[in-house]
């Protein structure tokens, strides 16, 4: 019995937070709304889509999205309306253009800079060791060393 419960728990599909009063009459329009709402972030729950969130703001966003679709907006227009109103943070997958491009590229650029700095540090360190191994003391340095050791 315990195994059955475990198996059912593991294969159970996630429950969506969409309330029955939010569901549109047109199944095609409702499917579009569901598809779009999975790509929008709940501003209260953070990394949870508005389709999965039970927060009031997520409900408001779901209703707003459905209103825009019923009004005749295309998918891109509805998303653009919500992004204009709430900012680009509302997108679970932000765009890779404009100022976001700098954020997308900052990590790899910093990694390259760190790799170059590490390589140059190790290279200089190995050169100093080779020079130290090659170098011998001059006669004046040997004399000074003898004096220090005698004292």
From TrEMBL:
Membrane-traversing stretches: 101-122
Record-annotated CcmH/CycL/Ccl2/NrfF N-terminal domain positions: 6-149
Keyword Metal-binding: yes
Coiled coil segments of this chain: none
GO CC annotation, single: plasma membrane
Origin superkingdom: Bacteria
One Pfam family in the UniProt entry: CcmH
Keyword annotations: Heme, Iron, Membrane, Metal-binding, Signal, Transmembrane, Transmembrane helix
GO molecular function: metal ion binding
Role played: Possible subunit of a heme lyase.
Entries under PANTHER family matching the protein: CYTOCHROME C-TYPE BIOGENESIS PROTEIN CCMH, CYTOCHROME C-TYPE BIOGENESIS PROTEIN CYCH
Family that this chain belongs to: Belongs to the CcmH/CycL/Ccl2/NrfF family.
Name of this protein: Cytochrome c-type biogenesis protein
Organism whose genome encodes this protein: Ruegeria denitrificans
Gene that this sequence comes from: ccmH
